């Protein structure tokens, strides 16, 4: 006898989706209360025509009640009231094809500069309008990765640096004369791979040469100056942000041993480097950072936003655990050190049975559910009606769906008009009766990483996404990610953890543990004290983790949480 999924495939091929259209409206929540990384934005195609999209080196700036998001090569910028839903503002008055923007406001004026050939400073009284004007047409320094910082006393400082040889630099600017430099730039942070393993390049941090130290960002907290910087390179999942601390804006600075404080080396999408720490309208801190795809080009990148906080000892932390799972929208003051905004909606789609209308060689449907944004399923065409289906194996409570499109053979450029992806998602309990979960057939938003929160939990076993239209190329998906919960038992606690640190190279250690019964995966947490385990790495299908980005002078503590579709079991 044919399975319910196979019977459904035959039926939908004959009926062309008529049943779904007759069953009513989409179950998508019109006012979402959750969000997910990578952030849902209209990522722009590159100017070289290689068909990849990017945004990177982000800055979020709160100005007159709105959050403004600036990023490299964006063609403009975005603004938001809640850090969840973003409105795009294209710009022709800013050098928005340059890399690494820097933004600062003084009273009612916003100042902007960036890397690249312009070396100018711009200003605006209302960034919602594209009316930026040149403030200083001949800025004294030609730099990469700038940062503008206004201190409490009204003095302005400028930080910059992007090199595998040169240090991170800083200099004071003249607030009363076009933000010209005052004095000579000073060396603030030098490379130190001998002691800081995470500054070493490669996906495993084992290329023991200088990485690229870059992207400085200054935050002041409780009278202390926190100078953040990225390493070892934007193309790696281990791309991260570290921090030095000082009593003065130009140092001297002392290395913070919990560096890198922003770090996400595993999961569906990795990377949490070249970012910016900012405070929201409720007084909470956040860290927005660059995440890596880097398949078609090393600069193929996305953005992620993570909770951040300073602990009682003054250490800066960033919470990236389950950082690409659904998160709760924040509407007030919250203690990120002790309160998680992870929804608890677990991944239901990992390695589930999938079928497709067609597939290209080496782009089979299983690549849409393997938790790796760096490979993908592609249909043989971009024609209407191409589909991808999934069997969860049992009825689960589905809460949300993330769709990450892969732009197979799109080959568009930044100057091309980009039509949005248009599609429908259906769900069923039995493979016979279907409901429309999301109707994007008339979608007007260009979202290559889309997120659908359902208006209420749906009992679902089977799901199907059907193409209506693509921007160009073929219908392709790197992540058909389904979130919710399944009735059942959580995994057993992890036992018998072993850590073997390399005595010949203290930058490296191997963590292993006995597999937990019922576990789908593990969240490894670690840090430099038992109570502050905010470094994390998610592991699927294995019970070992190699770390080569440790600091030689630090002692580390570890905990391994086990999880499955029913929830998370804390380790000890």
TrEMBL record:
Classification via InterPro entries: FA58C (IPR000421), FN3_dom (IPR003961), FN3_sf (IPR036116), Galactose-bd-like_sf (IPR008979), Glyco_hydro_43 (IPR006710), Glyco_hydro_beta-prop_sf (IPR023296), Glycosyl_Hydrlase_43 (IPR051795), Ig-like_fold (IPR013783)
UniProt entry keywords in alphabetical sequence: Glycosidase, Hydrolase, Signal
Signal peptide interval: 1-27
Pfam families (UniProt xref): F5_F8_type_C (PF00754), Glyco_hydro_43 (PF04616)
F5/8 type C domain ranges (all copies): 334-485
One of the protein's GO biological processes: carbohydrate metabolic process
Recorded GO MF terms: hydrolase activity, hydrolyzing O-glycosyl compounds
Superkingdom field: Bacteria
Residue ranges constituting the Fibronectin type-III domain according to the UniProt record: 493-572
SMART domains named in the record: FN3 (SM00060)
Family: Belongs to the glycosyl hydrolase 43 family.
PANTHER family named in the record: BETA-XYLOSIDASE, BETA-XYLOSIDASE-RELATED
Protein name per Swiss-Prot or TrEMBL: F5/8 type C domain-containing protein
């Amino acid at each position: 006898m044919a399975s319910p999924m196979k019977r459904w495939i035959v039926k939908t091929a004959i009926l062309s989706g008529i049943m779904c259209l007759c069953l009513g409206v989409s179950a998508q929540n019109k006012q979402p209360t959750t969000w997910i990384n990578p952030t849902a934005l209209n990522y722009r195609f590159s100017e070289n025509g290689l068909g990849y999209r990017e945004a990177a080196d982000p800055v979020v700036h709160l100005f007159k009640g709105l959050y403004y998001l600036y990023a490299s090569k964006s063609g403009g910028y975005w603004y938001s009231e809640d850090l969840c839903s973003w409105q795009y503002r294209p710009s022709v008055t800013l050098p928005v094809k340059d890399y690494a923007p820097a933004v600062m406001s003084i009273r009612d004026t916003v100042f902007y500069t960036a890397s690249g050939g312009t070396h100018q400073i711009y200003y605006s009284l209302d960034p919602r309008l594209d009316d930026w004007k040149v403030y200083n047409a001949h800025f004294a320094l030609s730099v990469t990765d700038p940062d503008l910082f206004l201190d409490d006393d009204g003095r302005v400082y400028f930080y910059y640096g992007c090199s595998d040889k040169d240090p991170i630099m800083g200099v004071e600017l003249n607030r009363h004369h076009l933000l010209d430099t005052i004095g000579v730039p000073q060396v603030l942070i030098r490379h130190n791979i001998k002691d800081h393993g995470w500054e070493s390049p490669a996906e495993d941090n084992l290329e023991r040469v200088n990485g690229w130290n870059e992207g400085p960002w200054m935050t002041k907290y409780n009278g202390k100056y926190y100078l953040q910087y990225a390493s070892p390179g934007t193309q790696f999942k281990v791309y991260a942000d570290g921090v030095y601390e000082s009593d003065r804006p130009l140092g001297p600075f002392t290395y913070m041993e919990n560096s890198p404080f922003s770090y996400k080396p595993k999961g569906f999408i990795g990377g949490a480097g070249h970012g910016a720490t900012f405070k929201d309208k409720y007084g909470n801190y956040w860290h927005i950072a660059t995440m890596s795809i880097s398949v078609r080009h090393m600069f193929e990148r996305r953005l992620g936003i993570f909770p951040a906080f300073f602990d009682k000892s003054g250490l800066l932390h960033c919470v990236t655990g389950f950082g690409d799972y659904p998160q709760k929208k924040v509407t007030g003051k919250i203690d990120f050190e002790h309160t998680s905004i992870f929804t608890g909606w677990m991944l239901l789609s990992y390695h589930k049975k999938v079928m497709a209308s067609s597939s290209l060689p080496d782009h089979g449907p299983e690549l849409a559910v393997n938790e790796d944004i760096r490979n993908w399923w592609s249909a043989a065409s971009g024609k209407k009606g191409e589909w991808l289906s999934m069997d969860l194996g049992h009825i689960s409570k589905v809460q949300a769906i993330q769709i990450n499109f892969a732009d197979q053979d799109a080959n568009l450029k930044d100057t091309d008009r980009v039509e949005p992806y248009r599609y429908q998602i259906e769900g069923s309990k039995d493979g016979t009766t279907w409901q429309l979960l999301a109707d994007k057939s008339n979608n007007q938003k260009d979202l290559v990483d889309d997120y659908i929160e359902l208006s209420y939990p749906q009992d679902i076993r089977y799901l199907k996404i059907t193409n209506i239209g693509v921007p160009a190329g073929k219908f392709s998906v790197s992540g058909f990610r389904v979130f919710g919960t399944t009735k059942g038992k959580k995994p057993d606690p992890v036992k018998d953890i072993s850590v073997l640190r390399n005595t010949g190279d203290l930058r490296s250690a191997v963590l292993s543990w006995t597999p937990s019964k019922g576990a789908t995966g593990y969240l490894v947490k670690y840090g430099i004290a038992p109570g502050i385990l905010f470094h994390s790495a998610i592991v699927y299908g294995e019970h070992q983790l190699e770390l080569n980005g440790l600091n030689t002078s630090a002692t580390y503590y570890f905990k391994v949480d086990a999880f499955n579709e029913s929830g998370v079991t804390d380790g000890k």
